[in-house]
Amino acid sequence: MRIVIDGRMLSWTGIGRYTAALLEGLEAIDRSNEYIVLMRQEDWARWKPQEANFRRVECNIDPYSPAEQTTLPKILRDLAPDVVHFVTPNAAALYRGTKVVTVHDLTLLDFDTSRGSLPKRLAGKAKRLPFRLIFQRQLATATRIVTDTGYVRDQLIERFGLDPAKVTAVWIAADSAELTEAREETLEGVSASDSLIFYVGNYFPYKNVRVLIEALALVSRSRPDVKLVLAGKTGEYQEGLLALAESLNVADRVILPGFISDGQLNWLYKNSAMYVYPSLSEGFGLQGLEAMAQGLPVLSSTATCLPEVYGDAALYFDPHAAGDLAQKIAELLARPELAAEMASRGYARLPLFSWRATAEATHQIYLEAVQWRR
Predict the structure, then answer these.
(1) CB-based contacts of 190: which residues, under 8 Å, 6+ apart?
(2) Deepest of 17, 50, 320, 332, by most Cβ within 10 A of its Cβ?
(3) Which helix (H) or strand (E) is 230 found in, with range?
(4) In the chain, how many domains are there?
């Protein structure tokens, strides 16, 4: 077979990581089929083929651009693939060949992620309608659809009336080897003697980070040693988060370091009391698995797919109830034996996830897609 994989988003945080890990896994298991990876020139250094049956083809078409719908289908037809894998559902909806489409989550359908100035937000909102149309077209014309979790699979089938045989859930995995090797670096404003609540990620409203500050205000009444570390670029959301912390009298306990190095991340994993994941919508929830891999007990929202992924290896809270979260935080802080048990459960759950297994399952879907088309 000739398999084309859309790798134009290798520089993107989540999708790029998924694509790179999938390619690495496919190179490990398939030495016979031909693979062509479409890549933008600016991402050329991010992935280099290690096997003779894999090669890169330059394709400088930006994601979510008009050319993605007009020019990209022609490029694909000229490559004459047996199957194309689109790692997101936004690309080349008019391509009519055999295709596998990965749908990671439904966040863009359910939540407004526009940000920036008013003109930018309005432009972002205006793009939602064409995205929905492209999304629905891609679902209708895909030969096979891959989701990261059973939750997203079931939602797609229910909302869009898809044939269940067409949609397969394939779990992904967490990578922590590089992080473990990073030399620890301390973080200004905190020390190992603090009881640290840790979150790292982005700050779109659906990430629900505000509930962490609200819960901190409740916990801090009886635990003056507790601090909340919100790592990652907060951008235009930082002012609102700081204002909330100020209004709840916990501004001195909220640490916003922005982007942090692997060494600082490593230190936080080693010295935090827990990792908290308050999101209202996820397709998988890698950060929680990464925290488990680093030995942290995990507190998780009950929303969407998170209970499926974390199983009994997390303590759960209602993401709309700061009081429920505060109670769980206080319980973990007061009961070291519970924290140790949850950390142990996290380690025990990790073997269920592997990028090699992801690659093997995805490879099988390629074979099924081609066979079905024939």
Answers:
(1) 196, 227, 229, 255, 271
(2) 332
(3) strand 226-231
(4) 2
